[in-house]
Amino acid sequence: MKLFPALSRRRFLSTAASTAAYSLVAHRRAAAALLNSPNQAASAEPSGKWMDEGVIDLSNSPHARLKTVPVRSVTIRDGFWLPRRKTNVEASIPSMRDELVNHGRMNNFLRLEKKTDAPQQGPVYSDSDIYKWMEAVGFALQSEPQPALRSTTEGMIQAVVAAQEPSGYLNTYYVGDHAPQRMLPATQETGHELYNIGHLLQGAIAYFRATGDPTLLKAGMRFVDNCLLPNYGPGPDKKPIVAGHPEIEMSLIELYRTTGNRQYLDLAGYILHGNERIPLKQSAIVYMFCGIPFTSRTKLEGHAVRAMYACCGATDYYLETGDPAYLKTLNALWEDLHKHQMYITGGVGARSEGESFGEAYELPNARAYGESCAAIGNMMWNWRMLAATGDARHADVIERALYNGINSGMSLDGKLYCYRNPLAHDASSGDKIRNPWYDTTCCPPNLERTLASLPGYFYSTADDGVYVHLYDNSEMKWKLHSGTPITLTQETKYPWEGTVRLAVKPAKADEFTIYVRIPSWSQNSTVSVNGKEVDGAKAGRYLPIRRPWSATDVIKLRFDMTPQVIRANPAVTDDTGRIAVQRGPRVFCIEQLDQTAGLTPADFYRYSARLQSETTEHYDPNLLDGVLTLQHPGSYSAPQPADALYSANVTAKDQDTATFLKLIPYYAWANREESSMQVWIPYVRA
Ligand SMILES: [Zn+2]
Questions:
Q1: CA-CA distance, 360 to 273, in Å (whole number)?
Q2: What is the rounded CA–CA span in Å between residue 132 and residue 446?
Q3: pTM of the predicted model, to two decimals?
Q4: How far apart are the CA of 606 and the centre of ligand 1, in A?
Q5: What is the Cβ-side half-sphere exposure of residue 279, based on CA atoms within 13 angstroms?
Q6: In Å, how far are 150, 186, 332, 363, 683 from 279, measured between CA atoms?
Q7: How far is the CA of 420 from the centre of ligand 1 (A)?
Q8: Strand duo 474-479 + 485-492: pairing
Q9: Model confidence pLDDT, tens digit, residues 57-101
Q10: How far, in Å, from the CA of 418 to the mean position of ligand 1?
């Protein structure tokens, strides 16, 4: 059997629409015409409702209790996230494009069109970094039209589409001498062909939802329609698939949501079911988190990003099919995450070796891997679980990861990125945590797409009303399932302060429920409507407020922002005798350069915190783009004789000198000169 039945060059060109002059109005007309055409199956085309589709489109997902709202329906105003999002669009996205271009990632496409003699550069998954960057652009354009950025991206899309072969095959690595390796079992394991296409589809869908331009999306569909569906999947005449690096599953399901073509969902299900059709070694089954039925998994293991993406795809599959075996497995894996595997920052993946999960409770601090992509995968997975269940515990993980282990991944100036996000750092190690570029540059565009898509995570709708998940100055203009337009406006200084004013404005008076999230860290919360207190606020739950709402109603929320001293489960031996400090959704840390005691960097680890003491707060607008710092009583121990590895007969009391520790939010660490850092600080009882 021929691998990919080739389309004629002419037919290929006729299907490869030009990006150049694709106006929004023209697309709307075209989409409507396609959907109405008796000769064109609607299921094979992107939908015409692209403007209404959220980060993921759950509008027709039968097992989604919560539905997403469009990214463009929520405007984040000046507060905590606006400056970060502004930096993302003005500094990160443009500078990352330069990095990608300068490192030959666009030349990889252009050389296939003979527009450059440059050699192929980068690992087998390099195409995905371009696609993920395009996804970031797609989300950014959903918030704000940016003609220059759009024009630049259109040019890149043209180059990508031009590199697609008439068969629909598209990959800049498996060409020339590498072409015979395409989709061989060994290539499927490690070659990332489907991973690349998965990111192409995600990027294309985000861009389509921003602009209505299906050019890139149709390129992705040509790969799936012409290369995959006729040749791979169930059936005796087809070849088997293994994901290798899970990603394709959630992308195929989003493609199903975007087009209505059930074949995409079924192919994702086939891949998730992955049995021994391409037998993998046991070590690969663990590392790649594929190769056996997803529903046979009992714990998180192996490569953390692969595991998180597999969980995303499996949750998407549940949202569409309602298969209870998937929900059962997903809940079991989530319990494993929450009880054994997640850092206090929401980061996951303890080991550098294999970028992988460790054993239960294996959560080292300085050696923590905590890849930015894995924390993002954790957020993406919990977003899907939240939609499936409506359970606030998933929103808590989203918030924890977002404010800490994800937000730490991008520098304050938006041009440096963490691949690893350790919870302790020795400045003398020479380990440079923030860098502008990585040869495997998965994390930077992943951080960019996350910040760009953030408005889409603030709210959901349900049959009986609307859910409020995240808090920041913002406005949502969207509609209830009844069709009634509604505006929700938040005014707050969250997360620096714990009060939120939420103005509710339905277009007409109506009875429905507003579910406000009470974060798990807020032990004393109050909620009122029009000045009258509402009972029942419980930490870690949504408080449903059902009543007739009219345009002048105001909900006031007050969360408990008292700094909390956190201890880890004793089984986490790396945190034995240590505490962390959290205030609201944010985890804090100490950096050497903020401490007043004159210890050398090498002596940084001599600091300890007082276990039972008052923590005071101070907002410093001039520090780290404006942060609230905490002062906590502590001490430091005098250095031992330089040559002594061990000393006898000393007590902590003898050695300690009182001081104050100054803590900053973890996300802001490593934004000044090189400095040691730790989240988990040793404590003394006095
Ligand atoms: Zn990454």
A1: 26
A2: 6
A3: 0.93
A4: 33
A5: 1
A6: 44, 10, 25, 32, 50
A7: 8
A8: antiparallel
A9: 999 999 999 999 999 999 999 999 999 999 999 999 999 999 999
A10: 9
- Are 123 and 440 in contact by the 8 Å Cβ rule? The answer is yes
> What is the whole-number distance in angstroms between the Cα of residue 444 and the centre of ligand 1?
7
Residue type, 337: L
Going by their DSSP bridges, the two strands 616-620 and 627-637 should be labelled as antiparallel
Please tell me the predicted confidence (pLDDT) of residue 651: 64
| Residues counted in the chain | 686
> Cα(373) to centroid of ligand 1, in Å?
4
Q: Which residues pair with 514 in a beta bridge?
A: 466, 545
What's the 443 CA to ligand 1 centre distance in angstroms? 3
655's enclosing H/E stretch is helix 652-655
Start-to-end CA distance of the chain, whole Å, equals 76
How far is ligand 1, taken at its centre, from the CA of residue 216, in Å? Answer: 23
Calculate how far, in angstroms, residue 636's C-alpha sits from the geometric centre of ligand 1: 36
Distance 247 CA to ligand 1 centre (A): 13
Ligand 1 midpoint to CA 638 (Å): 40
- Expressed in angstroms and rounded, the spacing between residue 419 Cα and the centre of ligand 1 is 6
User: What percentage of the chain has pLDDT greater than the value 70?
Assistant: 91
Taking CA atoms, 459 is separated from 149, 325, 390, 474, in Å, by 27, 28, 12, 11
Tens-place pLDDT, residues 140-173: 999 999 999 999 999 999 999 999 999 999 999 9
Do strands 465-468 and 510-518 pair parallel, antiparallel, or not at all (unpaired)? parallel
Report which of 490, 549, 496 is spatially closest to residue 517, judged by C-alpha positions: 490
Tens-place pLDDT, residues 482-518:
999 999 999 999 999 999 999 999 999 999 999 999 9
* Helix or strand (DSSP H, E) at 131: helix 126-143
Q: How many helices (H) and strands (E) does the chain have?
A: 19, 24
CA dist 393 and 520 (Å) reads: 8
Q: In the chain, what are the helix, strand and coil shares in percent, each to the nearest 5?
A: 40, 20, 40
Sequential DSSP letters for 389-406? H--HHHHHHHHHIIIIII
How do strand 541-549 and strand 510-518 relate by DSSP bridges? Answer: antiparallel
Backbone angles phi, psi at 39, to 5 degrees: -90, -5
Instruction: List the Cα angle 270/276/280 in 5-degree steps.
Output: 115
Q: Which amino acid is at 97?
A: R
Look at residue 631 and tell me whether its pLDDT is greater than 70: yes
Cross-strand partners of 307: none
SS3 of 580, please? strand
For residue 355, how far is its CA from the centre of ligand 1 (angstroms)?
10
User: DSSP string covering 500-563, please?
Assistant: EEEEEEESS-EEEEEEEEE-TT-SS-EEEETTEEES---TTEEEEEEEEE-TTEEEEEE-----
- Nearest-angstrom CA–CA distance, 37 and 18: 21
What is the CB-side half-sphere exposure of residue 193 using CA atoms within 13 A? 25
State in Å: Cα 539 to ligand 1 middle: 32
Sheet strands side by side (includes 510-518): 67-68, 459-462, 465-468, 510-518, 541-549
Residue pLDDT, tens place only, 46-65: 888 999 999 999 999 999 99
Token digits of residue 569: 């489960």
* Relative orientation angle of helices 372-389 and 392-400, to the nearest 10 degrees: 160
pLDDT tens column, 330-382 = 999 999 999 999 999 999 999 999 999 999 999 999 999 999 999 999 999 99
